[in-house]
């Protein structure tokens, strides 16, 4: 068991003095970073700045109770904390401000995120896990207000899980569950639903979580009184305060941002509650100042009156800290001891300015050298082409006149030169072309890599193992296949757990987890409240700590509640850290061909467009679904798997190798061969397409039916194009709205696979109406493609080309 800050603070006065002065020094360094950072933006050397000035003291106090193995999920003003946790240096701070694409110089995001977005690297270069217990951990920040909160819940819950779950390598992620997840949020952002949903869930689950609320009285320019029902968030949260003897609720501590000793005490108590009793704690830090306003986009003088600005100057945390230090004295063995004189503090102030200026200078020079090296490698080659086209000299002249040069400027010059010399052949042009290709590959990696895993465990690398059937293989309901496969999964992978609404006690609403909680316990097979955003957040956070969570969203329509987290957080984890972090969570849901307005949505196009970075798998039956679970649990990519709701009671032959067989991602399956037309579909619509194909056979049309199985990635070997090459006709059939998933599929086939070359007829999409279906089977029939719709519209393609052989139906 780890000790807490309260238990370790028996120190000498000299050590106490050194700690105080170290805190003051770090606070001054952080403040000077904010000041200089703002100047760098306003002088045009950086694009945008948002800084943590005013929050130095509470973050120093929080850092004292932040230990190896702990995690933070915060927002973009925690630079002092990041400095104190050794997750940030002065140079890496400015490297991020300049958007330096070097992972070594800017390890948080390699220039992909604006400043103030912090992260530690959880992964080795090959994508394998580091030992997270040997470092202090920061999960990669995101900008959407309160968007960091759902993930925080999962980071905290992982500690609770690790109290009972062990597996080979689990010591890299936890020491018996003694870690705390720290969250930070601006006061105004507590008006967001994600804050309340997360805190509510944490209080119900009783997880070790400390949430710090930085309260400066405003949300940009809007006063707190206009943000919530009550200006005081601690008062609003009073109903969450736990009662003695109850395992519900949280502790609430309110403290002033400028009161250094009170802050130390507040965070010491918070840690003690969270680490020793696994109780969530809210630390409401009030009277926070913001010396430079919200960001470089505006001035706070526009909305703060003179009295407020004067108060902020007087109650600036570092000003009050300095006063406290200078007023502190204690008698030890008859001698008065002080911490520091005014002259000593002045010297620290001067030292802080020099440290920050030196760090900024190095960061700027390193960043500029990257651009200078690029110019020196490319510009001479462009100049070699001056004699081949008169326009090139003008382009070069314009480039040289630029006061500040960025990578885009040298690429623009190069491409203009290549455009101007198109159609010519020379050694000089060939040399420039080769250099352009070389440097473009570097920048492609800098700006576009790691949307998906690039490790040996990426989903595309998982080999196919076909299901094995024998004479003894039973015909069972589809739900039994997936249930028995989950049984094998939980047995094989002790780090795997599943949670969702009704997933535990009753074994999910369709009995796909029947008996699993009884067998594997409430920790690994758990019910949750009705709160989709934080169900996803549980998955993200636990996956970031080495567990393999399956987050169940009961119906596909309900995934809209967690789409923000999927899009802004989960889908971008690997990308925004350039392979520094991963969260291989599996989102389990069910849908397709449902009935009724609120249970019949097919938001696949929204998922596809908003969640690039997450695999989207659409199995046509439960055996295929089981195979995808087996695949993804060997992969480190996140995925959403959409089970067919109307397949749970349909009979399927159960494979003999449950838990072992896999379905490859990005691999289509031809489920019926044909020679006249290629029909492409997925999910439950596949069954209807197969029925239509049989009807078309009777009408003399031989249809080839393809189940795409995987929307992201899509048909990696271009097999659909080969089918179209044979049939010369293409129909995409989908239950999504017009221009939805069918448009995506069509673009992939016609543009990427270039199957347009083989078409003898216009490509056809058969999609649902733009509204959701009314209730009952008639609603589905009249709103989504029916077998009759498919037969008639496909038949019409042939009527158009050969009306004699295929006379019109209507």
Automatic annotation (TrEMBL):
<dbReference type="Pfam" id="PF00676">
    <property type="entry name" value="E1_dh"/>
</dbReference>
<protein>
    <submittedName>
        <fullName>Transketolase</fullName>
    </submittedName>
</protein>
<comment type="function">
    <text>E1 component of the 2-oxoglutarate dehydrogenase (OGDH) complex which catalyzes the decarboxylation of 2-oxoglutarate, the first step in the conversion of 2-oxoglutarate to succinyl-CoA and CO(2).</text>
</comment>
<dbReference type="InterPro" id="IPR001017">
    <property type="entry name" value="DH_E1"/>
</dbReference>
<dbReference type="Pfam" id="PF02780">
    <property type="entry name" value="Transketolase_C"/>
</dbReference>
<keyword id="KW-0786">Thiamine pyrophosphate</keyword>
<dbReference type="InterPro" id="IPR005475">
    <property type="entry name" value="Transketolase-like_Pyr-bd"/>
</dbReference>
<dbReference type="GO" id="GO:0016624">
    <property type="term" value="F:oxidoreductase activity, acting on the aldehyde or oxo group of donors, disulfide as acceptor"/>
</dbReference>
<dbReference type="Pfam" id="PF02779">
    <property type="entry name" value="Transket_pyr"/>
</dbReference>
<dbReference type="InterPro" id="IPR029061">
    <property type="entry name" value="THDP-binding"/>
</dbReference>
<dbReference type="InterPro" id="IPR009014">
    <property type="entry name" value="Transketo_C/PFOR_II"/>
</dbReference>
<dbReference type="InterPro" id="IPR033248">
    <property type="entry name" value="Transketolase_C"/>
</dbReference>
<feature type="domain" description="Transketolase-like pyrimidine-binding">
    <location>
        <begin position="476"/>
        <end position="650"/>
    </location>
</feature>
<keyword id="KW-0560">Oxidoreductase</keyword>
